[in-house]
Amino acid sequence: MSVKSFKFISPGIFINEIDNSQLPKIGTEMGPVIIGRTERGPAMRPVKVNSFSEFVEVFGNPIAGGQGGDIWRDGNYTTPTYASYAAQAYLRNSNAATVVRLLGAEQTGLEDDADGKAGWYTAKENTNSVVTNGGAYGLFVFNSASAETIVDGALAAVWYLTTGSIELSGTLRGPNSVLSQSAACLYADDGGDYKAVIYGDAGAVSREVSFNFTPSSSKYIRKVFNTDPTLTNGAITNTSQLETYWLGPTYEGHLTEVVGGSEDTFGTVLGLDSGSISAADFRGGFQAAQTPWIISQDVGAYANYQAENMTKLFRLHTLDMGEDEQKKLKISIADIKAPTNPDQKYGTFSVLVRDARDNDNAPVVLERYSSVNLNPASNNYIGRKIGDQYLSWDDTERRHRVYGNYVNASKFIRVEVNESQTDASLLPFGSFGPVRMKSWTYNSANSASVPDWAWAQGGNALIPLAESANFIQSGSHGAGGFTGSVYYPAIPLRESASAGNLSNPKNAYFGIDTTQASNNRYEASYADAVRMLPPVVDSFAIGESTEYSYMFSLDDVSASSDTGVAVGVWVSGSRAEGNSWTAAGDYTEVLDQGYNRFTVPLHGGFDGLDITEKDPFNYTRALADGTDSTKYAYYSAKRAIDTVADPEAVEYNLMAMPGIYHAGLTSHMMEVCEARGDALAVIDLDSGYRTSAESTDAIADRVGSVSDAINGLNTRGVNSSYGCAYYPWVQINDSISNSLLWAPPSIVALGTFSSSQRKSELWFAPAGFTRGGLTEGSAGIGVIQTRERLTSKDRDSLYEANINPIASFPAEGIVIFGQKTLQVTPSALDRINVRRLMIYVKKEISRMAATVLFDQNVPATWNRFMSAAEPFLRSVQARLGLADFKIVLDESTTTADLVDRNVMYAKIFLKPARSIEFIALDFVITNTGAGFED
Questions:
Q1: For the whole model, what pTM was predicted?
Q2: Where are the domains of the chain?
Q3: H or E element that contains 296
Q4: Which pLDDT tens digit goes with each residue over 482-521?
Q5: In whole angstroms, how far apart are CA 836 and each of 86, 642, 766?
Q6: Residues 6+ apart with CB under 8 A from 113
Q7: How many angstroms separate the Cα of 508 from the Cα of each of 58, 388, 498, 501, 563?
Q8: Which of 696, 758, 830, 853 could form a disulfide with 823 if both were Cys (CB 3.0 to 4.6 A apart)?
Q9: pLDDT at position 677
Q10: 32-107+609-834 architecture in CATH?
């Protein structure tokens, strides 16, 4: 502090402490950016993790592949997530990595049926805009097989067919001697069992299956039907195992809610495709899940109450894209409180992020935001407390744009507030339900309107129900016929606060109930109930063929005295009928009774991936010959690379996309790294090796070769020091699942970069028996064997082509035996250690230069820069990174002309230390009497 800063009035001693010992800030460790598939987590945006445990928390465990099971409901675990293993390998010896999870995206503006669309659909043949083959078929179950004339029905299951059709078989519902069993007939169950007949493309029966909806039964529907969509893909499935269908969603909870648990039911299979509307067309890009709109209480006359007319207040979106979060999380609104004094305009409430599998007896709260409000000027404003920012990709500028006012504080969600509503008295009181297909009623005695989502199979075509004699006559009981109301899936709602045997009913959360009807165990069909609708309709807003699956509000909660104690019950329409607590008083009445909480789902998320592929980013079908507009997998991978192209947005010093070896994409990786000038791309080459996710060929026809790798690289004409490549693939051990799998070489290469840097310095060659010994653990992950054992001649050929061999020796084990970049021009930069040295030095020197930016362009500033740069370079030299260096920064470099143009110009001369790659030893044999000094 200057003496002028002291205020001297009366005599005294003035002391100030000045700290000039502060060390310059050292940049945080950057590590690699790793692009690829993971089990879950944020998608298509870079996320930095600082340990493998943090990686697992965010992105899930590595998947070794080879797992079957219920793939539709539980997810695809059939192929390895190579990016996860790359993160594990690198983070074993370092504490920083940036991960970009791949999901299915598509280029902006594609036509609905364009080749480049993301997602999936089942093949269909169309005649005059009517589906005649393949597509989606729904099982509709009604709640009585007796002669009753009015019944309720529910969509209970959906099959997706690549060809042919499906129908039920058995005993017809009505005693009709004229009608024979055929498609679209109504069949009575047989002790709770139904029988389905699956037809192939030639109309021949391919399979007959008896099934029911009892999970403990050996005939349970999800046990007896194929639930693996990849088995319909003939390119990766042997003919003996090839299927023409898979079972998609089943709605056990909804079925119980509408039809009940009675075995006295009847059902039929109807087509869910009609002309341009198809329930089997899920072509579209990834999207986040969200809650329905949270709505306000009614502040008007109760007789006019309609929940759908209540004010939309806010809704919550998942930060992670895709389907995972909606299956694992739900949102509760709790502790709703009205203002307590006239000066307090806004009430408060809490937002809870809960585990979807919990129950109200033992809530599992992952995040809680207490006492938030809807006052934008408050520090407890819901937008401020939770955050409202989101990213939107700009295809023109190839970058993300950030929208929203408040940085996201939550790890799981962001909030979208309806800013058009300004009434301070409004509080969250309920919600719309997720959008579903519109319900319909069929009367066999009259001409029925054609529902959009249910058509009868008639011959080789789908026809309107009103034209189906099979459907009409099999529904008849003499002259009575039947009237059936069909309800599409909805999540069951809590109707009584006493359900689930809560010790205190006031701890009940009204709204959705994710437990089974008879107990507190999780209802597994919830995962299907929150899935996205086909993209032809909007999953978040109703249209002509859709409706809200429910309308819930605390305004419809009233008292029940069945047990002698007033217990809250929810009955739709109670307020409008004058029976609810809020109808008897004002909206605070239900809150004063202690019922001030409810739960809503997250729904509508989508991965945008082709679920008929084991690896949706495989080379053969998803990437080969791809462009942005013709292959969504190509577009997605390229976009992921572009998200990390800006050095001012993301810092890293390595880039890898394990298992993706498309020439155009790996070249793009190198181009991005070279344009940035601060990263090295570790790429995989197309060596001809194909995994089982590529084809059904025998392994002998899929192994590839050294010559394929060399010829493929030579054809590309790559000449860049910002890329490097390795050969061959290796077998690694997944220590978490105790599984063995074949992995691309970029994974173990990243591991050696990390361990080499930890053992010595990053400018030491990550190769050889000391730092490249994979058997000795240098990869950070267990390496068992190589896909191909390289001979000395193979290693020579690969190294001449600038491909680093992964060699296997009898005594020394498996070792990385090279450290070349892909630069063909001979120079110091054709070696990895020198390129990494230069990346490191340039990055650190640029940080030092930034400290003098906008300072005066005078010798004193130049000297300050040199006083920081010289000790740094001297330190690198002392640690064997440089043989020598020199910095020139004076009037000879920064001339008067440059000063006038506000430029400081320095020259930094470096002599990189070279690694030893060849050792020559002469062993001279002499006579016994000869002296060594000779």
A1: 0.91
A2: 32-107+609-834, 120-284+438-487, 851-912
A3: strand 294-296
A4: 678 889 999 999 999 988 888 889 999 999 999 998 788 9
A5: 19, 22, 10
A6: 283
A7: 31, 29, 8, 10, 17
A8: 830
A9: 92
A10: 3-Layer(aba) Sandwich (3.40)
